[in-house]
Specification:
heterodimer; A: 249 residues; alpha/beta; three-stranded antiparallel β-sheet; 7 helices; 12 strands; 29% helix; 22% strand; B: 449 residues; FAD/NAD(P)-binding domain; Flavocytochrome C3, Chain A, domain 1; 2 domains; eight-stranded mixed β-sheet; six-stranded mixed β-sheet; 32% helix; elongated
């Protein structure tokens, strides 16, 4: 199985966020870390490899030079195929999805942290699945390591499992059962010398992958209207029902 | 003008401030960071005390003389016997004094580095500092100034220290004395490179204020230094985990230490400072504490250095149903690890360890255990430098001394900034113990000066 893991990296919350002149946060390498979603996505890939040693894992870390520190962190987990992709151009969710799709071609499974590149809109992973023509399985929590291994997600008492018998893009949320393992010190020190390649973001923006209708979807979060429902429970229920009927009409 | 100026707001500084106030002095305490606490608040909260009611309740026979013997042995008799004697004679009084100040002690007593009997007394270290601070400030005779870094000591023409100069340039005089309690230099890369280059690859965990300020200020006016060759790290820090800063001492419960080649490399019962030296000499500066379920079950989650269950929950242990499975996870040749464990178990059976001479779990305490009951556990371990355990030479009254042994009048020191007490190695609980015992002594002496 060929697995591609897409890792965004975030500013480590133990450091204060310092905006630069444009008001965007500075992303110095020393202050970047894997997010809990990144870590869970990577751990699920490693668990699959634990089960099937012939599994090939490729990890793509978002960012330029500053992402190399995170890339080496991944190398230390015995993942030799680690690349960075610099989303340096003006972007929206669709642009990020296009670049990531180009990086993920040929994979049997794409694992991506839930918040990659979209401020938790959840659009990038589903767009990525659409672009690749893969099935999409969102909010994965853990690998069910039985035979065959399955991706698992839960909602209250309900559990859903997905057998990995088809190409899938899976977005991963954090779960204590998918906490990232610690690397061995010898591998950390060897990873200091690891060569980390970079995906050419320009090449990744070709026209080969089309996504219809994204302009209506991308950025829609800021345009959603909000109505506050007030009153007694009965009044709120009536108002809600009226809103839903209007929406359906 | 206050009577006494205290530089540094860790356990030693606040102990000194409290004792000085109780001695009738007015005090100004300067803390260079926004919050006081220092490295003390980050420590494991262990105090080495001997002859306490808590030990008596558990049937532990201990006292100042056995403590003195152990401290000298673990310090390889390099330590200043007069300082050690002073500590041993003052620690029980200090224990009662801490309780009166509101410091709460856990009922759990454990045995750790350098101890012949169980004498690790555990507190919440941040609470300890807060309790001392609260008690010191109660009478309104302490002025506390945070974000105020002291940069220089002021001296009279006769050499007597008369006050301090702040980073802002402001000068403040003291009627009586200045007490330096500003901690060590574990956060000063240049000083570490000068005094402990062998620890370049170690992990450093210390208060951000541990920059060696007090040490530099005092030496600039002629203070002597002690034990600078004995900066050491503590064995047992997980090398790649950044969430749990505390060391783990499974070796003192019967685990063995193996290196990345699967070989033992040391008598695991010796001081964890010497174990720190030993592990830094291994490939990748790392080893693994290997144990079985029986040893794992002797851990105690209420003691930070023995909280095996909590570390397992944090995902820091490797666990294997067989030694071969464990070896695979930590990338050690399985046959080698199995042979190492078999050889060690044979030594335990025979009561003789010809490789390294291990006879006890820790120091001269405890019977060795075989590693034989699955599952098996491995805890990656390197050395962590929590403190520098060396520094200003003081006499038993905490006066700072020159190289010729003469006192620098008006200047006292306590806590991590001082040298001479630990010697070549370290007993668990003696750093925080030293901070409060000599902080109290310094405060009393400064108030009386």
């Amino acid at each position: 199985m060929k697995i591609t893991v897409l890792l965004a990296g975030v500013l480590d919350p133990k450091w204060p966020v310092a905006p630069d002149g444009d008001g965007l946060p500075v992303r110095p390498a020393a202050q970047l870390a894997l997010s809990p979603f990144d870590e869970a996505a990577l751990e699920i890939a490693l668990k699959i490899r634990d089960k099937a040693l012939d599994t090939e894992i490729r990890v793509i870390v978002g960012g330029g030079e500053e992402a190399i520190k995170i890339a080496r962190t991944v190398c230390a987990l015995n993942v030799p195929d680690v690349l960075t992709v610099d989303h340096s151009t003006l972007w929206d969710q669709a642009a990020v999805a296009r670049e990531l799709a180009q990086c993920s071609l040929g994979s049997d499974l794409v694992l991506i942290g839930r918040e990659y590149g979209d401020c938790d809109d959840g659009l990038v992973p589903s767009m990525l699945a659409r672009l690749l023509g893969y099935d999409y399985f969102g909010r994965v929590q853990v690998l069910d390591a039985g035979e065959p291994p399955k991706l698992l997600r839960e909602n209250g008492a309900f559990v859903e499992r997905l057998v990995l018998d088809r190409p899938v893009v899976a977005s991963v949320t954090n779960d204590r059962r998918s906490r990232l393992r610690k690397p061995l010190m010898k591998n950390v020190m060897m990873a200091r010398q690891a060569q980390v390649g970079a995906v050419d973001a320009v090449a990744a923006q070709g026209d080969a992958l089309k996504l219809a209708g994204v302009s209506q979807v991308a950025g829609s979060r800021s345009a959603v209207e909000c109505t506050i429902i007030e009153g007694t429970l009965e009044q709120q229920a009536e108002l809600l029902a009226a809103l839903l009927l209007d929406d359906a009409a | 003008m206050s009577d006494v100026i205290v530089v540094g707001g860790g356990a030693a500084g606040w102990a000194a401030a409290l004792a000085a106030v109780q001695g009738g002095a007015s005090v100004v305490l300067f803390e260079k960071l926004a919050e006081s606490g220092g490295s003390s608040a980050l420590s494991g909260g262990c105090l080495a005390l001997a002859g306490t009611d808590l030990q008596a309740a558990q049937g532990v026979a201990d006292g100042p003389d056995l403590l003195f013997k152990d401290l000298c042995e673990v310090g390889q008799h390099v330590n200043d016997a007069a300082l050690v004697r002073t500590y041993c004679d003052a620690q029980l009084t200090t224990y009662d004094w801490l309780k009166e100040a509101g410091v709460g002690f856990s009922p759990v007593i454990e045995t750790a580095s350098g101890q012949s009997v169980p004498r690790v007394h555990t507190v919440d270290p941040a609470d300890l500092v807060r309790a001392l601070k609260a008690m010191a400030e109660q009478g309104g005779r302490v002025v506390y100034r945070s974000n105020a870094a002291v940069k220089n000591l002021l001296s009279a023409p006769d050499g007597r220290v008369t006050g301090v100069q702040l980073e802002s340039g402001q000068e403040l005089l003291a009627n009586k004395s200045v007490i330096i309690a500003s901690g060590g230099f574990a956060k000063n890369p240049e000083m570490l490179n000068q005094y402990a280059p062998q620890y370049a690859e170690a992990v450093f965990v210390a208060g951000a204020g541990s920059q060696g300020d007090g040490l530099c200020m005092a030496t600039s006016i002629g203070a002597d230094l002690r034990d600078m060759n004995y900066v050491k790290g503590t064995f047992g820090k997980h090398p790649t985990d950044e969430t749990n800063d505390h060391s783990l001492q499974a070796v003192y419960k019967g685990a063995i230490a193996v290196n990345q080649d699967g070989q033992r490399f040391v008598d695991e019962s010796i001081s964890y400072k010497l174990l720190g030296d030993a592990v830094m000499a291994q490939p990748w500066h790392t080893g693994y504490q290997i144990m079985d379920q029986g040893i794992f079950d002797t851990g105690d989650d209420r003691v930070r250095i023995l909280d095996f269950g909590r570390r397992l929950e944090e995902g820091l242990f490797y666990v294997g149903d067989t030694l071969e499975e464990l070896a695979t996870q930590i990338e050690i040749d399985a046959d080698t690890l199995v042979a190492t464990i078999a050889r060690y178990n044979g030594y335990v059976e025979a009561g003789n360890d010809p490789d390294f001479g291990r006879e006890h779990l820790v120091h001269q305490h405890g019977v060795l255990r075989k590693i034989e009951t699955p599952p098996f556990y491995a805890y990656p371990s390197t050395a962590v430098v929590f403190g520098t355990y060396c520094g200003l030479r003081i006499d038993p009254h905490a006066h700072v001394l020159r190289a010729d042994g003469s006192r620098i009048d008006g200047l006292f020191a306590a806590g991590e900034v001082t040298g001479g007490f630990h010697g070549a190695a370290y007993m668990t609980g003696s750093a925080l113990g030293k901070a409060v015992v000599f902080g109290k002594i310094a405060g009393e002496a400064a108030a009386a000066s």
